[in-house]
Write a structure and sequence with these properties.
This protein is α/β, with parallel strands linked by helices and about 210 residues long. It is built from 6 helices and 7 strands; from the N terminus they run αααββαββββαβα. The protein has a 5-stranded mixed β-sheet, with helices on one face. It has a two-stranded parallel sheet with strand order 2-6. The structure holds zinc ion.
């Protein structure tokens, strides 16, 4: 697949348009461009309207070229019992200069998976490991706000729903990326994140790794 943008035409444009549920006339005009930008926005890609390798991969037309061999777990480092939206996470990541939310998946207090950026693109969650990993983050990880210096007190605040979803999601990712290993952010950085012992948890949920 070649890179397509406004002005492109031909059979690959038709493929793109049918993937985006547009009329496949093979002409990349303003409507196609808007649809591409919407798709990119919704899939954690830079909404530039240009269909390159990442967008083709996210559309499911070509396999994702990124080789993933690590799954890295995080917490939002927010107070126990308080929800923290993807919009809030994204705002804090943009403030740190990232192009988008840094994680691929966020697990809310209710245990629902909230997709972040597309798995087809490298995340921004663990320096030196982003290109090869998928980043998963649960909301919480600190003591309740009522505790003095709560933000310096890491705590495993995972709700039963979050634990169940984390297990399901990590197992699903391992099926998709056979041989990948699972790590806490704390293995690679001087941080308390994700505020629980990942190795111990892996044993509890029956995930064996080297
Ligand atoms: Zn982290």
């Amino acid at each position: 697949m070649t890179t397509l943008k406004r002005g492109s035409s031909g059979s690959e444009v038709k493929t793109l348009q049918s993937k985006l549920s547009l009329i496949a006339d093979g002409i990349f005009g303003p409507l196609t461009e808007e649809a591409v930008k919407d798709f990119q926005r919704g899939n954690g890609l830079t909404p530039d309207g240009i269909v390159g390798a990442c967008t083709w991969a996210s559309l499911g037309v070509v396999p994702c070229k990124r080789k993933v061999d690590q799954i890295i777990l995080h917490c939002t480092a927010t107070p126990e019992g308080e929800e923290f939206s993807n919009a809030q996470i994204k705002a804090s990541h943009l403030a740190r200069g990232f192009s988008d939310i840094g994680y691929h998946y966020v697990i809310g207090l209710d245990g629902k998976v909230r997709p972040g950026r597309s798995e087809a693109v490298a995340g921004a969650h663990c320096t030196g490991h982003n290109t090869r990993s998928v980043g998963v983050c649960y909301v919480g990880g600190c003591a309740p706000r009522s505790v003095p210096n709560w933000n310096k007190k890491g705590k495993d605040t995972r709700t039963p729903a979050q634990k169940a979803t984390l297990e399901k999601l990590v197992k699903e990712l391992l099926r998709r990326y056979p041989g990948a290993t699972v790590h806490g952010h704390d293995e690679f950085a001087n941080k308390a994140c994700p505020s629980f012992d990942v190795k111990k948890w892996l044993m509890e949920v029956g995930i064996k790794q080297k």
